[in-house]
Amino acid sequence: MVTGVVAGVEIRVESMAAEPASATLQLRLLGPMTLLREGVPIALPGSRKVRALIAYLALAHRPHTRAHLCELFGDVPNDPRGELRWCLSKARAVLDDAGHRRIVSASETVTLDLADMRVDASEIERALHDGIAGLDAERLRALADRFAGEFLEGLEIERSPTFAGCTPPTGCASRPSRGRARWRR
User: Fold this and answer.
1) Mean pLDDT score of the chain, rounded to an integer?
2) What is the DSSP secondary-structure string of the chain?
3) Before 169, cis peptide (omega within 30)?
4) What is the pLDDT of residue 6?
5) Does domain 2-163 have CATH number 2.30.22.10?
6) By the 8 A CB rule, do 128 and 154 touch?
7) Are strands 34-37 and 25-28 parallel, antiparallel or unpaired?
8) Does 153 score more than 70 pLDDT?
9) Which residue has the higher pLDDT, 162 or 102?
10) pTM for this structure?
11) Whether pLDDT at 113 is above 60
12) Which one, of 128, 33, 45, lies nearest residue 93 by Cα?
């Protein structure tokens, strides 16, 4: 992660170039979604929307506006921001550590601080970006071991057709082998 000061405001930019040296959290998205803290599995919230929000923020590599997240995840027409606040509070309960808030909210944006977090799908993306051909056999085996099933396996949610095809960082392209996902809580 790079920290800099722009116009008198400190900003942090996630780099896709390197993995965290010692990842406290590991998020697995290639297969059934799994979260590990120092190698120990953490129970994810029962809400599929909360899990989808965690996955989306983990892959986004940039802040998203609350309005955009409400459009993706909100199905309560009279209070989508309230629903987003509820989802964010549930996500914080599993992602945050004492002294480290991973979900960072500004007035109109939300992002996930990945400083000490490893995401399997991002590792694959980074390897593809850097060039698979240059990797040794051991690293290729380690990357192959990341695949435990389909991307976001079992994470189908009704009532949000917008999210069904969205998988950052590529945007709203079709999800591999799933087509239009159904949202369920």
Assistant:
1) 76
2) -EEEEETTEEEEE--SS---SS-SEEEE-BSB-EEEETTEEEPPPS-HHHHHHHHHHHHH-S-EEHHHHHHHH---TT-HHHHHHHHHHHHHHHH-BTTB--EEE-SSEEEE--TTEEEHHHHHHHHHHH-GGGS-HHHHHHHHHT--SSBTBT--BSS-HHHHT--TTS-SPPBTTTBSPPB--
3) yes
4) 36
5) no
6) no
7) antiparallel
8) yes
9) 102
10) 0.73
11) yes
12) 45
Show the tokens assigned to 101.
């808030």
Mean pLDDT of the region 148-154: 82
Cα angle for residues 110, 85, 179 (degrees, 5° grid): 70
Q: Rounded distance, CA 138 to CA 93, Å?
A: 36
Strand order through the sheet with 40-42: 40-42, 34-37, 25-28, 117-119
Q: The tokens 């509070």 sit on which residue? A: 89
Q: Are 56 and 165 in contact (CB under 8 A)?
A: no
- The structure tokens 């435990």 sit at 148
Amino acid found at 114: L
